[in-house]
Amino acid sequence: MAETLVPQPASDGSAERLARIRAGLSARHSRERRFRFYGIAAIAAALGFVAILFTMILYKGLPAFTQATLEVEVFFDPEVISVDPMPVQQQGQSQAEFRRAMTDWQRQATMVNWNRIVEAAVRNAAPGTEADSRQLLSIVETNARFELRDRFVADPGILGSTARVKMLASANADNWLKGNINRDLPDAQQQLAAPARELADRLYENGHIRFAFASHIFTNVDSRSAPASAGLAGAFVGSLYMMLVVIVLAVPIGVMSAVYLEEFAPKNRLTDLIEVNINNLAAVPSIVFGLLGAAVFINYFRLPLSAPLVGGLVLTLMTLPTVIIATRSALRAVPPSLRQAALGLGASKTQTVFHHVLPVTYPGILTATIIGVAQALGETAPLLLIGMNAFVAQIPGTPLDQSSALPVQIYLWQGNENRNFFEARTSAAIIVLLGLMLTLNAIAIFLRSRLERRK
Amino acid sequence: MNTALVAALLLLLLGFAYQAGWSRSRSLATTGGRLHSRPVYHGSLAAIWALVPALLVLALWTLFGTTATRAYIIAQLPAEIASQTGAALEGAIARIRQIESGFGVVGETAPYENAAAQALREFRLLTFAVVLASAAGTGAIGLWLARRRITTALRARNEVEKAVRIVLIACSVVAILTTVGIVASLLSEAIRFFTFVSPADFFFGTVWNPRFSTTGSGPSGEYGLLPLLWGTLMVAGIAIAVALPIGLMTAIYLSQYARPRVRSTIKPIVEVLAGIPTIVYGFFALVTVGPFLATLGQSLGLQIRATSALTAGVVMGIMIIPFISSLSDDVIRQVPRAMRDGSLGLGATKSETIKRVILPAALPGIVGAFLLAVSRAIGETMIVVLAAGNSPYLRLNPGEPVSTVTVTIVNQLTGDTDFASPQSLVAFALGLTLFAMTLVLNVAALYIVRRYREQYE
């Protein structure tokens, strides 16, 4: 610091020196201001990134929670729906035989031209439309016919009557009505033909198409043939199973191993090695755990591909270091006087730890668990390697069934060819995932403050 | 086997054994004088003695039960069917199982099938009863032995504590087993890969073109690591270039300038960035940052692709900001206050104090944070899978698409390739490289940080 003031007797040249110092001072102060400005700029950049990220996700994702829904009178025309009466299980017929007869009947019901019923219903709602039947059906989601069939299979008595039915508009019609597509583009660049676009507008104007809350995002499973009806239910249940596996395995194992290392383990080479090993495991890339899962659980133990159980096991191994490290620091924060008091009154080492030290750390362990689970919930890469990126169109019944997971579903949806529609759908899925993680973290903070106050 | 029934019986055995040990020690205490351990421990010890043998029997059956049942079914089949192999035999076994379960099968059942199903039904019942009885029997013997051991002098507490200790040790071994599992699986599969491709070609090859897996063919294609490694380093370098200045300045401002209230609001908001799943960052990069950078480049006259090393690097940098800022914040706050006050007292401005006193003192910790951040960036997967463009060529321009080690691992293992083909196995060689790189970085960082802590504590 060459410019630092040195006390000098007031003598000749002092004015000159003072001037030099003044000049240096102002330069130093402007450097100070500049440094401060860099700091503020860095914080503004960091906060700006948070703001942009959340605004973008909300802006893109919120519209996907409402969806164009068609509500029309459907006539179950006996002329179109000509099928045999539903079979009944006869005396002496084996379960398998009856199933076969039932499947045959259902196949017959599926072979009915339900599209004609849908078409008649839509034409009825918008009389005099110019759209031909292909164009007309292009604004209704393809699963509408299966919904009508399911209605009929569940209640064959509906034949010949009229019912008010809600069906989803197709993804393209939804895009068109939401204005996601430039309306001035020429026909060749539009997904829908001109008469179909006109029909969609008319149905919207006369109230047959409305934007309704898209509850099917939460209740439906993923769908390829009917993208508008694709939902998160399967992925959600898959993630739920995995989180259960993580909680059941990672918490007891993690806490017990932390207790051993912190309270019982002798300080020697081996425990030192375990310590380094755990700290390193916490920083190993998640994809390496995926490789471990693929090689050991899938290839060696022959556990099923895409199963939430395997995903849960992989995530458990990943979460374990987090739980161990957090529990250890919670144990270290317990005042030694507590241990000494218990030991002094004649409690054994085990009694001291389990009756007096561990209960004090419950808030810390709980918080660590929830944070670990939230981390595991958002993990994608290792799940891709154990086959959870497969397309699964049903809700898994057990942790051994094929399943997807929330983050993997996001990955699959962002890759869908129907970009225009699935960008919003992906953002909606991200909102759901972030909402879940935020809830988990809020619960963690709430519980910690509750439990710590009670002490 | 009926899981719920077995679980209920085990619980019953547990409760009964505990009760037996407890009441026996109680009655001893009332007649025979002072007990060494409290009845709770005698009860627990009896429960351990009863439960462990029973669990062992059940574990043995789950290990060998399916094989035994299968062998029995095959033994019931007529010789000409049992001597078949492959799908025919499997189909026959499946039919028998279905008839036995009462669900029935489509078509007529042959008399031998009915007989086999009947025999299988009896076999299942019998084995279930035998396994259950032997589990209960060993449990009972264990309990009987445990109960006989109970005296006033029995050190039940010490024995229970020893059992607890064993369980604790077993749990801490899991972490070691994980590392052993990672190293063993990566090494063994990588060695299998190196039987197809020589390590020199892998580590020093400059062309990455694995081609598709064709059954029975040898190594078709070239497996050069360098393009992937280059892509990884380029993306990680861009990420660090974004994250290090922003993260470090944030940490400095928050710890040295900001008032406590500002600090306590801003710090959690910045740390929100650390909790966001990486797939969300990937989507953000793909949908927002990539197109933005492409338009920006266009207006500057530069050719930047929407999916490029730059896009992935910038977004990864955003992800790493809180990582660097909170780690550096910790180390900056550990610098003794006296050093700071001394510098300020000599007339240095705040920024001079920070630049010439605090940062040099905190440097080892910051280097540790930097190394951990690099290790994070190298191992990051989803952002680069979505936003880096997947093009494994050696290119200098960061505006062009690249591919990284992690992306290639995902690509090679998620396709329809045979697990034993070099196209799949190369993922493990890549994983081994990645693991080795991050291991070195992590251990170095941990060592530096630990030494630094010792210096000031």
From TrEMBL, chain A:
Any single Gene Ontology cellular-component annotation: plasma membrane
Cell membrane found in the keyword field: yes
GO molecular-function term, one example from the UniProt record: phosphate transmembrane transporter activity
Keyword Nucleus: no
Cellular compartments annotated: Cell inner membrane; Cell membrane
Pfam families from the UniProt entry: BPD_transp_1, DUF3333
Primary location class: membrane
Protein topology in the membrane: Multi-pass membrane protein
Keyword field: Cell membrane, Membrane, Transmembrane, Transmembrane helix, Transport
Highest taxon in the source lineage: Bacteria
Annotated InterPro entries: DUF3333, MetI-like, MetI-like_sf, Phosphate_PstA
Residue ranges crossing the lipid bilayer per the database entry: 37-59, 240-261, 281-301, 307-331, 352-377, 428-447
A biological-process GO annotation: phosphate ion transmembrane transport
Domain ABC transmembrane type-1: 236-442
Family: Belongs to the binding-protein-dependent transport system permease family. CysTW subfamily.
Name of this protein: Phosphate transport system permease protein PstA
Organism (species): Neoaquamicrobium microcysteis
Name of the coding gene: pstA
From TrEMBL, chain B:
Entry's Gene Ontology BP terms: phosphate ion transport
Source organism per UniProt: Neoaquamicrobium microcysteis
KW Repressor (keyword) present: no
Function of the protein: Part of the binding-protein-dependent transport system for phosphate; probably responsible for the translocation of the substrate across the membrane.
Topology relative to the membrane: Multi-pass membrane protein
Location relative to the cell: Cell inner membrane; Cell membrane
Location of the ABC transmembrane type-1 domain: 229-445
Transmembrane regions: 43-64, 125-146, 166-184, 228-252, 272-294, 306-327, 357-378, 425-449
Name of the featured protein: Phosphate transport system permease protein
Family membership: Belongs to the binding-protein-dependent transport system permease family. CysTW subfamily.
Any one GO cellular component localisation term in the record: plasma membrane
GO molecular function, one term: phosphate transmembrane transporter activity
